[in-house]
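**Backbone description:**
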Amino acid sequence: MIAIHFLRSLLHIVVMVVTVIPWGLAVVLVSPFVSSTALYWMCAGWLRVAVVSGTWILGIRNRVTGMENLPVGSTAPAILLLKHQSTWETFAMPTLMPHPLAYVFKKELLYVPFFGWAMGRLDMIHIDRSKRAQAFNKVVEQGQRLLDQGTWVIMFPEGTRIPRGQQGQYKTGGTRLAVATGAPVIPIAVSSAKCWPRRAFIKKPGVVDFVIGKPIPSQGREADELMREVETWIETEMRRLDPEAYR
C-alpha cells in the first residue's frame, strides 16, 4: 500500500511540475495585456488542475460546509483566516471561493521558478518579514485597496504549516488588518493533514474538510481579543473534525 501511495504521490508531483512550467510562462507573457482579475483566474486554472489531479491521482476529496456564511455581493469585504496544515489548502482555496483571493506571503516565494514568477504578476501582498513595521503598513495599505475592489484577503494566523493534532501560536496580523479596515473575519478550519501531512512526500486518500465559520465583525474590537475568538473557534472545530489527532 505504501508503494502505491508513493507512486501516486510521485505522479501527482510530475503532473504539477509539467503543467506549471507552460502555465507560469504564459502568465508572465500575457500579464502586461490583461486585467489583474483575468490574470488571477488564469492562475486559479492551474490550481484547479493541481486539485483535480490530486482528486483523481491521490484520492483526496474536498468537503466544504458553511458556504452560506460567506459575505454576499461583488464588493463585500472579507478577511479569511485559516488553519494551515499543508500545501493542499493553499491550492484549493482559490478553486473554492467565489471571489479573487489575495494571499499575504513572504517575498522569498517570488523566487521559486515558474510558480513564483507567476505569483509576482498577481495583485497580492508579498512582505519582507525582517521589516515588521513596514510589512504591516504595506498589508494595511494594499489590503484596504484590495478589499475595496472585491478581493478577499487570506491569511494563515499561525504563520506556517502546523503538524496534525498540534496548535501553533496565533498571531494578530489578520485581526489587526480587520480592525484597521473594518472588514469582517471569516474563520476556517481545515483538516488537510489527514491526507497531506506537513512536509510529507507521500500523501494518502481521504476527505479534507473545509468548515467556514460565521463572519465575526471587527469594528470596535481589539485585535488581540478578536484573534482569541478566531483561535477558539478554529481549534474547537479542529478537535471536532479530527478527534483522533487531538487525544
